[in-house]
């Protein structure tokens, strides 16, 4: 076994005399911010993806087809309910913005 050489000590870092001041995060511009309907579409899209993926994974792991189908249907019901609620509150928020007087 070869003899190990001692490691050279790392040079100490120079301490900065300036205090640490994190930069403020820049606010996204209005044009780059996603609209509420885009966000709802993304959430529902991921929900649908989960509704399709979970039964496939359950079948792959050896679960009974009836159980996998039941899990898929249950997730589909939850995703559909969430979609309805998201759309309802999105419309309510839009209506509230229209009725709010501008100073």
Describe this structure in words.
It is a single chain. The chain has helices spanning 36-60, 65-99. It starts with 35 loop residues before the first helix and ends with a helix. α1 runs antiparallel to α2 (65-99). The chain is an all-alpha fold and 103 residues long. It contains two helices and no strands.
Largest sheet at a glance?
none
Q: Structural class per helix/strand content?
A: mainly alpha
Task: Work out the helicity level.
Answer: 55-70%
Distance between the termini: 82 Å
SSE pattern: HH
- List the total number of helices: 2
User: Could you name the ranges where pLDDT drops below 50 across 5 or more consecutive residues?
Assistant: none
Name the beta content range: under 5%
The number of distinct β-strands equals 0
How confident overall, as mean pLDDT? 78
């Amino acid at each position: 076994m070869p003899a190990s050489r001692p490691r050279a000590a790392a040079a100490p870092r120079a301490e900065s005399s300036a205090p640490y001041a994190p930069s403020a995060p820049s606010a996204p511009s209005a044009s780059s911010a996603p609209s509420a309907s885009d966000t709802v579409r993304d959430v529902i899209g991921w929900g649908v993806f989960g509704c399709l993926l979970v039964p496939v994974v359950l079948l792959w792991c050896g679960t009974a087809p009836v159980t996998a189908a039941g899990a898929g249907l249950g997730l589909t019901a939850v995703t559909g309910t969430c979609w309805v609620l998201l759309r309802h509150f999105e419309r309510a928020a839009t209506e509230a913005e229209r009725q709010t007087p501008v100073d």
